[in-house]
Request: fold
Amino acid sequence: MEREQLKEAIARLAPGLEFPENAQLTEVLAPTAGFRDLCKALRSDAALQFDYLISMTAVDYPDHIVLVYHLHSSALGHTLVLKQKLTDREKAEADTVSDLWLTAEYQEREVFDLFGVHFNGHQDMRRIFLEDHWVGHPLRKDYVDEINIIER
Amino acid sequence: MSTETSTLNLFIGENDEYIINMGPQHPSTHGVLRLELALKGELVERVVPHVGYIHRGIEKMSEKLPYPQIIHLTDRMDYLSALMNNEAVCLAAESALQVEVPERVKYVRTILAELQRLASHQLWWCAFGMDLGALTTFFYGLRDREKILDIFEESFGSRLLHSYYLPGGLMHDIHPNFQKRVKEFLKYFRKKLPEYDQLLTGNVIFQNRVKGIGLLSKEDAISYGVTGPSGRGSGFACDVRKHQPYSAYDKVEFTECLHTDGDTWARYKVRVQEMWESMHIIEQLIDNIPEGDYTAKMKAIIKLPAGEYFQRVETARGELAVYIVSDGNKTPYRIHFRTPNFSNMFVMSKIGVGCKIADLVALGGSLDLVIPDIDR
Reply:
C-alpha cells in the first residue's frame, strides 16, 4: 500500500492521530488515551493487518518518554511506526499490548527494566535483564552510575 | 524419599511439580541461559526463561560512541553473524547520509553475508547433532566451517569478530586471493554437503528425536516474532532478503525456504536447504564483482542528520533491526537493536510446554540460540 493510502486507512481508525512529515517510514503519533483500542484495530483491520510487531522500544527525552512500536503486516507487507508520548517521566505508565502481540510481553519487560515504564495489564511486570534489586533504569538519560559510566 | 529429594536440591512447587533449573551452565543452552522448568514426572509443565547473565548494556554504551566504533560492539551480539550485524548499522548510517555505496561493496557484502550464514549454519548443524548425541557431526561441521574461517582470516585478519565494514563501504579492499578461494570452497562444499544428509538427516534415531517436537503454528510464530529459519519452518515468510532486498540481494535469484510443519524437523530442513541456497547466491556473484572503490567518499567524522532511521537485515538467525535516533551529533541519541534471538528464545515458554526434558534440548537446538544476542 502506498504511504498516502496507508495514512488514510489509519486516520479512519481513531481521532487525534498525528502524522509527522519527513519520516523515513510511515509514522503515526497516537494519543495515550485509547491507544490499546487503536492497536486492536490496526491488528484486525482487513486493509491493514499489522500482525507482526518487529520491535518495541522507548526513547527518553528530557521531559517525556516516547514509546516506539514498529509494526509490519506479514500478509500485505507494509510497515508502520507507531508512537505514543508519555508526558509523566516520574510515573511513566502505558497500557500493555502483550495480549495482542505475544512478543510484546518480553519487549515491554525490557522497556520496564531499562526505562522504568510500567505497563498496566501486563501479567508479569518484572525486570528482564537486571537483578530485581537494581536501583534505577539505566537507559534513562539522567541515570547515574559513578563506577561504570565515565563522563568525558 | 523426601530426605533424598532435599539433598538433591530439588524444589517442590504447587501441584507437586518439581522446579528445576536448566542452566545457566547447561551445555545445551549454548551459553548462559537459565530455563526454570516445572516438571511433572518427565513432562515439562512450564518453562520460564531467565536472561541477562551477560547483559553488557550495548545500547547504553553506544550512546557515547561514534558510529564506526558502534560497529565493533555489534560483533559481540550475535557473534556467529558478526558481518550481518555490522552491515545493519552501516546500511542504517548510509541511508541516513544518503550515501550511494559502490557496487563492488554491495557485492562483497552479500557474498560475505552468505559465507557467514554458511559458517553459522554449519556450526548450528554440528552442535545440533551433538546435542542429540551424534558426536560425529561436530567434527564434520567444524571441518568445513574451518575453511570459511580461513578465508575470513586471510581477507581481514579475524576469524570470529570481524568489524570489517565501515559506514560507506569496507575497511580495506578484499584480498587478491578471495575470489579464487571462495570458488575452491564452493566446489569443495558442494561435495561435502550431501554427507550431512547421509550422516544425520536420514538417520532414523535422529528423525524420531525431532519429528513432531515443539510444534509452532504460523500464527504464534508471527505473534511471537519468531523469524529466520525458525519462523520459516512454521511457514512465516519472513526473509528480509526477499521482501526488502538490500545490498545485492535484488540482483540474485534464490528461493525462500519455507516449510509449514512447524516442528523441530521442519526447522532442521529449512537450515540445511538454506545452505544450498547460500552457495547458489555466492555462485551468482563471485565472478561478477565489479571493479571500483571499496568505499564511498566519507567524511572523517560521521554525523547523521537529525531524525530516525530503521534498517532490517536478515542474519543467520532471523531479522535484526537497528533503530537509530539521531540528534545530529556524532553519537546516536538512542540506538536500539531488535535482535532475532530475543524473540526466538522466548517462544520456548510456549512450545516447550508438554515436551520431555530431552525434547527441550532438541527444541532449543533447533531454535539455534546465541545468548549474547538476547542479552545485548
The domain at 3-95 of chain A is CATH 3.30.460.80 (Beta Polymerase; domain 2). Helices of chain A lie at 3-11, 35-44, 104-115. Chain A touches chain B through 33 residues (CB under 8 Å).
